[in-house]
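User: I'm new to structure prediction. If I give you an amino acid sequence, what do you actually give back? Let's try with this one:
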Amino acid sequence: MESKEQHLIRHYLILFTLYLFLAGCAHQIGTKTTLYDDWKPRLAAQQSWQAQGKLAFISPDERQSANLNWQQDEKQNKLVLTTFIGTRILSLKQTRTGAVLDYDDKTYTDTNAALLLKRLTGFDLPVDNAADWLKGTLISQTLKVDELDRAQQVIWYDNSNKKWQITYSNYKQQSGFWVPGNVTLKHQQIKIKIQLYNWQFN
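Assistant: Good question. You get back a string of structure tokens that encode the predicted 3D arrangement of the chain. For your 202 residues, that looks like this:
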């Protein structure tokens, strides 16, 4: 027969287990992100964001890869590429007045960020419109979406009238939005593959 002390211990263990279960449920409910009903226009309107990931630039002549940190606020758009051991390859900052590129221990300026990047590094990347194509919020008659209205593929022309085919995949919910985890851009024989593993919105 169970003693009074054993009964109390069993009683406390049951209560403690129940507490842990309820606390776990409360934690899961509290940390779950609620998706906005109008997530797409809200995402398009987001002016302050940061995305981190990896970038691979593939052409017939070369293949290069780097870590990527891309951030934008109301004043500037900044792209930083680093090697996989953390050494900075370049830093490109774009404002309303022009662009500044820190590359190969030198600083360069121009009025066009994409042309500056292409001229000095060979990277053909439409950085001017990153706020639209990186988030998957481009508006185009060629846009194909899935059943959740998430961009899947689009034919898009950048500021230099270059034709890009952009595909999106591996979406994840972040801060109430659907954001792409993978973005691939193709222009003629150039392919740029971007893997995004972290999004932040302010």
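You can read the tokens as a compact description of the fold. Here is one thing that stands out. Residues 39-201 form a domain with the outer membrane lipoprotein receptor (LolB), chain A fold (CATH 2.50.20.10).
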